[in-house]
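Hi Y.,

Following your request, here is the sequence exactly as I used it, all 316 residues.
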Amino acid sequence: MQETAESSGGTHHNQGGAGFFSGRVKNKITAELDDIVFGQSLGEGAFGNVRVCWIKGQPQHKYAIKTMKKADIIKSKHVDHIENEKKILERIEHPFIMDYYGFMQDDRYIYFLTELLRGGDLFTYHRAVEHFNLKQTQFYGAQIVCIFEYLHGKDIVYRDLKPENIMIADDGYLKMIDFGFAKVVTKRTFTICGTPEYIAPEILLNQGHGKPVDWWTLGILVYEMLAGFPPFQDEDPMNIYRKIINTKPKYPEGFDSKCKSFVKHLLRRDLSKRYGNLKNGVQDIKGHRFYEKINWQNLLLKKLEVPEGSDPFATW
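Below is the corresponding structure, written out as tokens. Let me know if you'd prefer a different format.
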């Protein structure tokens, strides 16, 4: 999937040294770059790669380290993007968000140290099985509800929900990654960002946007998980945008009626009618009949049984 973003350049500030910053991170690991042992590559990104790593003398504790080249970040005017992600990660901690352990740099690279997630992303898993069953859709969607409730409580809008940004942990629960487009928003913001199939109409219409965009993207994700494809799709992003602004989703035959009602309440172009943005806030979403059988507290405590068929390792 393509991404679109309005990026502004930033000034690079040399913070000196290669140690971890002393940010407010509960799980911060104090180590120097020389203490890190780099292992196998887990994948390539826009500015570098992600590898397995561990601290010297502690090979039993594995982490992931994202390495990014400073020159590439500056050239593409993504300095603010990266600095913003670092600031957001410093202030959040949640069972369904990737654990962040620290940041370091040397003359050529910057490094993000995070928990190691071997389960792969939701996009790859979803593509392998073509579509999720109803229980999986409810289970995964409910975790996104919990994440957004937490972030919005801190006035953080995520703005980049898509299957590629959701990892599956070893326990079968989700972990959200990539907070580069997340932003602290108390009123409205006008930055254009997101993936074409997931972008909310108010962003396209440049009306200013805030927390409701995340609930729109949840509607898109839930639809795609159950149907196997997003509700608005086309080879040309401009045609996707036209569909988002001018058309309503069509639901495949056999699409669960409760799920359909849930998605419809989220994919309201009129913000005054969109679930999550009404006077009851997230309670309208959690109280919808699509989730009538879920115990939200047990979900957060990871006491709910992972739905059958949700083992990503069995698929690849």
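Residues 134-153 form the longest helix (20 residues).

Thanks again,
Q.
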